[in-house]
Amino acid sequence: PVANATISPGPLSRQVRAGDPVTLRCSVQVGSVPVTFTWLHSGTEMARGPLLELGDVGVGHSGSYQCVATNQLGQDGHRVFRALSPKLALEVTPQGHWNRAVATGVGGSLLFLVLLVAVVVGCHRWHQL
Known about the structure:
This protein is α+β, with helices and mostly antiparallel strands. It is 25% helix and 47% strand. It has one helix and nine strands; from the N terminus they run βββββββββα.
């Protein structure tokens, strides 16, 4: 029977930014072939196979992921064995909201400083005439 299903890369909690590519791999330490892998997202079946490629993730990909490994005993497959991996909690943070705010603030400050220097230089030249 299958046993010790795991998801890699670990750890059991991951934080990624929106737009980052995420690929999860499910494997078992014990189990005779063929082994079937089923992926659950927040308890709902979403895919099959040892690899789960989420691509460029969005906030909707947040939640818990779990892999179910299954194999059968006997040629008629009358005994089914299952191994559930520990849940992996994936948190996707929106990309760039904070970065855009900082960039806008820095850009605005730089523009203000350039204008201030231009006014000071202009006033200095005006008084010299």
